[in-house]
Structure formats: C-alpha cells, structure tokens
Amino acid sequence: MALIDLRNVTKRYQIGEQEILALNGINLVIEQGEYAAIIGPSGSGKSTLMHLLGCLDTPTTGSMHIDGVDVSRAGSNKLSEMRNQKIGFVFQSFNLLPKLNVLQNVELPMIYSGVSAKERRDRALVAIERVELQNRVKNTPLQLSGGQMQRVAIARALVNRPKIIFADEPTGNLDSKTGANILQLFRELSEQGSTIVIVTHDNKIAAQTPRRIEIADGVIVQDAKNAPALT
Amino acid sequence: MNLWLGFLVGLKEIWANKFRSFLTMSGVILGVASLLSMFSLTAGIAKGVREYMKQIGGLERVSVIGQEIPEDQQGYWEISPGRTVQDAEAIAKSAHLVSYVTPVSSLASAAVQRSGHTMRAEVSGCWPDFVPINKHIIASGRNLTHLDLETGQRVCIVGRMVVEKLWPERPNFDPLGESIRINDRPFRVVGVFDHYEREIDKRRRELGLRGASKLSSGSGKPRSSGSRGSGAFDRKNSAIIIPITTMFWEYKSANVVSKEDQGPQYKLDALTIQVADTDRFDETLDQVRTILMSTHREIEDFTFDTRQEFFDSMEQNMRNTRMSGGVIAGISLIVGGIGITNIMLASITERIREIGVRRAVGAKARDIFVQIVVESAVIGVIGGLLGLVASAGVIQILIAISPEANAPVVEFGDVLISFGSAVIIGTFSGFYPAFKASRLDPIEALRYG
After folding, report:
1. Residue B115 pLDDT > 90
2. Residues of A in contact with B443 (CB under 8 A)
3. pLDDT higher for B112 or B47?
4. Which of A51, A154, B49, B268 lies at a CB distance of 3.0 to 4.6 Å from A56, suitable for a disulfide?
C-alpha cells in the first residue's frame, strides 16, 4: 500500500451561514520516498489538504490511509499519535518555542513519545548535526538567523524518524539565497530516502521537485512528473 | 509527557516570568500565611485553655456537691447527715477506683497576719490528699500528716503569694517553722507550695528573659504572678491549708448566731475525689455513689460536679473558633486561587501558538492539560512555601501582641494542612485554563498571532 492514499476526499467547513467546500473529491497517492510539491493559489484548498495529510484534521467524506493506518475518522488522540510518530512538520514561520534552546526544541517531539532523557539528547544531537547547527545547540531561537531557525525546525521534524515530512511554505520567510539552501537540504534528505511534501504557491519551488501536484478550487487539476531538476 | 517533565516545564515557565509569577503567587502566599497564623493563634488559645484546665485539677478531679432532695424523699431528708468526714473516710476505705479523696472545710476569707502584715485568704481544712487532687506541689517543707490530723496540730502549708504578702521584704524566703496567725490563732508554717506560673513565664524565667527581674530578691517587689492575669494561678498561689481536724476544733465547734450557739458545724464545704483511671470514669462515680448512698441513708442529697461538660464545651468552642478562622483564611486562599486561574488564562492566550506547536509535534490534548495544571500546581507549591516563610514572620508579630498565656503555637499538622491547601488550590485553579488550552484546535492555534 502506498504511504499516503486518499480516495474521494472532501472537506466542508461551516463558516457562519455559509458552507465552504474546501476539498471536492481528492484522489491522491504518494509513495514511500517521493519528493512532491503541492501548489496552488491561496484559497485553492492546498492548506486544507496539507492539514489532512498532516493528520491535523480529518476529511468530511472519503477515506484516507497514512502508512497503512486508516485515519479517515480518527480521534484526537489517534491523530496526535500519528503526528508524533509518522509526520514531521516544517512551517513557514518556523514555529520554534522561543523559551527553549535549540536542543530542547529539537527534543520536543520525543517528549511526547516517551523517549528517555538520554536517548532524547543523543537523537536530538544527531539531528542537529544533520542540519549543521552543532555549534548552536545552547542558543535560543531568537539568537539565530531565519535560515538557522528553519534548519532547527527541520531537525525537529526529522528527530522522531517520521515516514513523511510536510513543509508548508518553508522558504516563505527567507531571502532567496537562504531559501535555496533550505531547498537544497530537502533535496539531500530526499536523496537519502525521506518522503517530503512541500506546500507552496511558488512555481519556481514546485519546479524543483520531481512531482508537482497542482490544486485549484478544491480539486487536483494537474499531477505531473517534472523533468529531473537542474541544480 | 510525564509529570516530572511537566514540573520542569512549569518551573521554567514561572522562572521566565518571575515578576508576574510572583504577583500571581502573592494571593496564595498571603492565604497560606493567614491560614497558618490563624491555626497557630487558635492552637495557642487552645493550649492556654488546656493549661488552665490542668491547673484547676483536670478531668479526674470530681467534687461531690449537694443537690435538691428528690421529691419522694422530701419528707424525711433530715435523716441524712449531709456531707461529712465520714463520707470521705468511707470512700477512702472502700472506693478502690478513687486514687485520692479529701474532705474540705474552709474559712472563705480568714485574716492572716504576721507582725504587722495582714492579708485575707481562703483557708482550707483538709486531708493530705488535698495536695495531689488540686495539683499542688510542695516546694519546701512537708505535706500535712495523719499525725497532724489525729492530734489537731496548728500547722499550715502556705502558697507563694502568702509569703510575698506577709514577708514583703523577703518574697523568696521559705518561712518554715515561722509562725503566722489565722483569725488570731497561731499556726506554724511547715510547708510552702511551689510558685505556679504559666509555662511561658517559666520558660522565660529559665532563659533569663523579660520578667525575670520580678524574681530578683533585690528589687523587693513581690512576684506578681497575675499581672496579666489568670485567676487560676492567683488563687492557687494564695492557698493556705491546715488539717481539717484543726479547722473543726479551732473554728467550727461553735457557731454563734445572734448570741446563741448553734452547735458545731462539722458539715463539709467540699468533698473532692480524684478518679484513678479516667477511662473508668462512670464506673468510679457509680462506686462512690453507692458508698455515699449508704452513708447518707439512701437520701440522694448529693451529686457529682464533673468538669466533663465544662471541658467538652471548652473543646467545642476551640474547635468552632478554629473552624471559623480557618474558613475566613481559607477564603483568602481561594481568592488567591482565582488569581492563579486568571493569570493562567491570560498566559495560555499568550501561548496559543506554543500550544499549537506542541500539538503539531504530537502532544495529546491531555498532555497540554497536564502541562497547564502542573504549572499552576507549581505556582501553588512555591506560593505555599513562601507563604510558610511569611507566616513565620506574622506569627512572630502575633506572639508579640497576644496575651502570653495564649501565645500562638505552630503545630506540624497545621503546617501540612496550610501547605497542602495551597497545593490543592493551585492545582484546582489550573483546571479551567488547562481545559480551555487542551480544547484548542491545533490548526487554529498554529495560525494564531
């Protein structure tokens, strides 16, 4: 079975009197090891799709399997567990906890999976080394640059060895050079076997991934393989 | 997430917002301080009252007192001799559950003199058992003896205050062998009672603190044992006892009313016993009643005056005082708790995004709940500890301003209760904010701010 398997997924929101159909019959399969971009203008439903894929929400109708687990109707605790064990998030605004240092931020997901203190530390240090911030371990996020913060966030996303990493506009708050570095890091991770899905509205970013899923008005309008990226 | 981690996260959060946390805690600090001060104040009062009750003979001291004769015996009540020395003798002989018994015949206000110094005092004619029953201690000299009783010796044992009044220039003098006059008859002092004082005075004196000067003989001032006054001590310190036989022979063998002798007055003013074992209190009274029914020829013209009811109502009063004080102090603690709730609510509003991040990386709703509750409980714990420190200061002030006999006493149990209340209040105060925080939608929370 595919790592991610969505069948006829719809998502409706009720905002006051108005009902919004954010997703309207999505069929999507993402295999282990893929590196894909979901692209679409704002209001297209791409954020909603990412919330579903990231187990932050459940579909109104349709079925959704992640790593073989049916999460179509999963409860809050089940979703938390999925996010903790199988999913890593990277956000546009980094979302690091400002009062914790780099090490503690990276340790955070493991706190909720009951990893022992020693193992937490060891694994966090490995992840920090992977993003090349080993000399910033004791710094707090406010002492870091944007690119460094995003790398901490990536280390945090990696640390619980998730099945898939979701990045929501990961370069949106970064200058283009730093953004390129982050994308380079994703590419390396992908080459090492991680499954990565980037959500973006930027075609240039989407063009760099092997697969490009375009969404508009709640449906997938194009799902194409890109030519091998030029770097 | 385990509790210990939650505790550390809570500590960190509190430390990161030191000033705000301290303001939040201040309600709990004051609440705990007032609760513990309140407890120690009432405990001090209770201790003062218990000391007083002990001074006046405790529960085991029972008086046989006269009572209205039952209606069906009205016609022939004269056949009962009333309370007499024979009653005491019968009790001493037959009531094995009674450890001490004494008949008492007294002069309510006798003139006591020594070379120009005069005082009025109550003089009790009694048996040697009077001393243990009334918790007297003979500091020097001896108790009355059976020989004194049999031969009607004119000997007396006097309280410390009697010495102070009759020998004002030598208040610490033990006038053994000296002679005093009681209603114009000479008596020889054979014993002096101890100086009875409150425990706190005694402690002071032993430590050489304030109040000690009163005792230095150089000052010439008598030890005023009752300046702040408890009557029990004054009365006890001015006691004079003589053999009851002497009392009868010297003062009670004639009773001249309107120039006519009414004959001897050998009825007793008091008949007091001490119960050997308070666990067998009722049994003891039954035994004494049986004996007295026989000596009183089945006329029930006596009853028992026990301290039981008095003591019970004292204890009840103390419990009530403690309870109402606790409620008042408890209210301030609850107000402190509301303060915590308020600040925690503000704090989670500030941290909605943090909560979103924690949820996104896998925190369950209950992890967030635990985190907030633990944080709030930690505020309670620290506030409680600081409150105990603050109460130490408050209690010092209370000790300085409250009557010495009732000086506040800190009991370990009360410390635990006060601290425990702070922790419980802290924990409960966190419930509502924690519930709100745990119910936040992760998506909304991540988007916030």
Report:
1. no
2. 51, 56-57
3. B112
4. A51
Q: What is the 3-state secondary structure (H, E, C) of A112-148?
A: CCCCCHHHHHHHHHHHHHHCCCHHHCCCCHHHCCHHH
User: A–B: how many Cβ contacts below 8 A?
Assistant: 61
Q: Each residue of B207-257: pLDDT tens digit?
A: 765 544 444 333 333 444 434 445 567 888 899 999 999 999 888 887 777
Which DSSP string corresponds to B119-166?
Answer: EEEEEEEE-TTHHHHTT--EEEE----HHHHHHT--EEEE-HHHHHHH
Report how far residue B46's alpha carbon sits from residue B54's, in angstroms, rounded to the nearest whole number. 12
The Cα B142–Cα A211 span in angstroms is: 113
For residues B258-276, b (16+ Cβ closer than 10 Å) or e, as one string?
eeeeeeeebebbbbbbbbe
* Complex-level ipTM: 0.93
Query: pTM, whole model, 2 decimals?
Result: 0.71
Of the candidates A77, A95, A111, which has its C-beta nearest B1's C-beta?
A: A111
Give tens-digit pLDDT for B68-87.
777 777 777 677 888 888 89
- Among partner residues B5, B363, B443, which is closest to A56 by beta-carbon distance? B443
Residues 6 or more apart whose CB falls under 8 angstroms from that of A29 comprise A2, A4, A5, A6
> Cα separation of B79 and B271, whole Å?
19
**Cα(B56)–Cα(B34) distance, integer angstroms:** 33
